[in-house]
Amino acid sequence: MFYLIALLIVLLIIAWLILIYNRLVKLRILTEQAWADVDVQLKRRHDLIPNLVETVKGYASHERKTLEEVVKLRNVATSATSPQEKIEAENMLTRALRQLFALAENYPDLKASANFQKLQDELARIEETISQARRYFNAVVRDYNTAISVFPNNLIAGPLGFSPKIFFETEEEQRAVPQVKF
To answer: Which of 61, 64, 119, 177 is the most exposed place for a label (fewest CB within 10 A)?
Structure first.
């Protein structure tokens, strides 16, 4: 009878460990899938940028420095490999794109261009989709990081190689509320 109770306790502990492990694996896979979704949207943005730059070039050819910076940062963003590198590169690219659109304000013909407006609208849609994908990714990372940090999961997560994931956060200056002056 004692052996039967001991066996039952051991089986319950093993089942409990398996459940925790499977939940952690599921959450890790969700974070990887959520990052892939963000990455797809970032690729869509990268594919749109050359068209946008070419359109602006036709109207603002003497603004070469800004255009070259956008192209350079796009190339950096597409060649980044780790999530941390991609996040940093994407934040720099976002700043450069804002400068590009600010530059467009100085060229009424460019602002009136149907092609530029179409590209700007498409980029705005992509940016919104990126924002949604980033929010989902951050929510999944939060759940994963919480799951590997709480007791008793942390007793299993650490030895089995589950490490915290980083959030896709925007830089402080992107969070700032724009000032409107009349």
So the answer is: 177
